[in-house]
Amino acid sequence: MKKLIFGIVTSLVICGFSIESQNAYPLIKNESFSKGEQLEYRVSFLGITVGKAITKVDTKSYNINSRPCFKIDAFGETTGISWLYRVKDNWGAYIDTAAMITHVSYRKIRENNYVKDELVNFDHKNKKAKVKVMNKTTGVYEDVKDFDIPENATDLVGGFIQMRFFDFKKIKVGDTVAISGFFEDTSYKLKIMYKGKETISTKMGKIPCHVMVPIMPDNKLFNGENSITVWISDDGNKIPVKIQARMFIGHTGLELVSFRGLRNQLKIVQ
After folding, report:
1. Which of 4, 19, 92, 192 is most exposed, with minimal Cβ within 10 Å?
2. How many domains does the chain have?
3. Who contacts 45 (Cβ-Cβ below 8 Å, separation ≥6)?
4. Residue 42 falls inside a structural domain
5. What CA–CA distance (Å, rounded) separates 35 from 26?
6. By residue range, what is the domain housing residue 17?
7. Taking a C-beta distance cutoff of 8 angstroms, is the pair 246, 222 a contact?
8. Which residues touch 222 (CB under 8 Å, ≥6 apart)?
9. How many Å separate Cα 69 from the centre of its chain?
């Protein structure tokens, strides 16, 4: 169960299009979200509700590395099964408002007796990630460790956001796009395949979506390279509406159950 929210909320993710170079940073026109947005998801395992996940875009802007940034948080926690396994995690990032790349990311993981506090500074000029982890005993961050990162790398929360800048007019069924990012101590490049359009039923009604399938590398959590499917709303918001994952221990997923502060009207059909 430890991997449930930890893996699902953060493994989905994403790259952008129509990028121009400016001052060594990409430039992405944001018409998909704004400050104050909040999305809430139901987390299920084997068809049973086991938790919830929430993403929030702070109502304020922040200056990080002399760049204006969004502060974006993803929260995941178990509900109803906390007596069996308790999860209360917070993943966050400061995302450049123009380039949509991560400048700082952080994780506050609380899963039963497992605790981890991590802070990562992204040095895009020198292509380095500077990672430090808090000592559980002293409560003080330990020495910084440097890791190489690809150009304009994002963390997993940043990847969650960048999915909202796909230009689906330029993607054909069967096309793949690549994500470059960094997590813990590893840089990665993940390919995602476009599978076309599908209208799905949700608590709020039927929502037209684009279907994306990350091509997963061999791992001990997800069963097969096509084990995750993501449905992204076919409207100006391009929000993840539903996620399904086939794991070795069973099927799990997320489904959007409420929202507020959307920049554009969510398309719901009868």
Report:
1. 19
2. 1
3. 1, 4, 250, 251, 252
4. yes
5. 21
6. 2-260
7. yes
8. 7, 11, 216, 228, 245, 246, 247, 248
9. 17
Is residue 197, in this structure, part of any structural domain at all? yes
Tokens matching residue 24: 């060594």
In whole angstroms, how far apart are CA 112 and each of 6, 92, 158, 206, 253?
13, 20, 26, 37, 21
Instruction: Let me know if residue 62 belongs to a domain.
Output: yes
Cross-strand bridge partners of residue 69: 62, 96
User: What is the pairing mode between strands 48-64 and 102-111?
Assistant: unpaired
Q: Strand pairing partners for 116?
A: 109
User: Is residue 238 a part of any domain in this protein?
Assistant: yes
Return the structure tokens found at 168: 């689906």
Give me 243's structure tokens.
């996620």
Mean pLDDT, residues 234-250: 80
> Which residues lie below 8 Å from residue 177, measured CB to CB, with a gap of 6+?
15, 17, 166, 171, 191, 192, 194
Give residues with Cβ within 8 angstroms of 138, minimum separation 6.
none
* DSSP track, 20-59: EEETTEEE----S--TT-EEEEEEEETTEEEEEEEEEEEE
The model carries a pTM of: 0.84
61's CB contacts (< 8 A; 6+ apart) are 35, 68, 69, 70, 97
Amino acid of residue 168: F
pLDDT tens readout for residues 54-68 = 999 999 999 999 999
